[in-house]
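User: Last request for today: this protein with ISJ, please.
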Amino acid sequence: MDLNPLREKIDDIDRQLVELLNRRLSLAAEIGKFKRHSGGPIYVAEREDAVFRKVTALNEGPIKNDALRAIYREIMSAAIALEKPLVIAYLGPEATNSHAAALKKFGASVDYQPLLTFADIFTAVEKGEADYGIIPIENSTEGSVRDALDQFVTSDLKIVAQLNLEISYALISPEPLEKITKVYSKDQALAQCRLWLQRHLPHAQLVNASSTAHAVEIARDEPGAAAVAPPIAATHYGVPMLMRNIQDKANNTTRFFVIGKTPSGPVGGGRDMTSFLISLGDEASRQPGALLRMLKPLTERGINMSKIESRPSKRLAWDYYFYLDVTGHYDDPAMRAAVEELRTFCPLVKWLGSYPVAA
Ligand SMILES: C=C(O[C@@H]1C=C(C(=O)O)C=C[C@H]1O)C(=O)O
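Assistant: Here's the final one, the structure of the complex with ISJ:
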């Protein structure tokens, strides 16, 4: 069969696509000019959510919605880069799960800055050295990332978006399986792949490394060595993946927040979530029914709670604050009324942000 006529048609479509993409990006650049003038945020979570929903609703195939979303992620990433060279701070080193989450949310066209601690990420965004930060907040098997939650007590940054990332590990090595005598990784990652390693590499020595990314560098350089690390580390360091998805539990997912200075607007349609920090005060929190009293202003107005976590205030012994995730946007009249009521008896009701539910 002569493929040339079909390829000529593809060439013609590519010409149109490039022209359309540049037209779309020029409009984004104009929007960027306006935003720079008005001081509006460059990344707009609620608008991106609407774009993703619009294009997947328009899609009649054969392209899969996941593929369409990935393409649009990169189109919007390129649009953002034309508006302003954004810097996204995440918990490094490079090629960690946090790096993968940052790339999934912001695409390949923005700049990334790996930092050492959660406090460093908050400070970088507060000082404007980074525009947004990516913070892991809870894992489906390990629970809340408490150090990350605690940052919101002292910071005035807002949660502007969230995303879920399935955490998976690969066995990474330039050597074939039968040559591997040592497996390097961070102890938590080795623990999450313990059964697989016992079954497939029963004689290999398991060695703790400072990070999964560093383990891949060792595997690249040391004969007989392999690493357990996220797939992004194999790509990043150019070392082959021998096997994907070697973690013992399927559906191991981490929820991440995007933090920034400007709050996100509502998307509506029951697709908004809001987070609060609430303190009842040390006296009141010891009264019977204190927690129920705190939840009543919300539940009475049909506002559902999807997460509650108590954390020590670190001011007084046995004094707590509560971290809450609820449905709806802070601007909803019902939410405003609930907050007003809560403020009549809670010394602290801190709004941490409203954001679209993860796609
Ligand atoms: C173009 C805009 O800026 C960014 C790019 C978007 C896009 O390419 O569609 C959407 C939202 C923003 O993150 C906008 O705010 O509309």
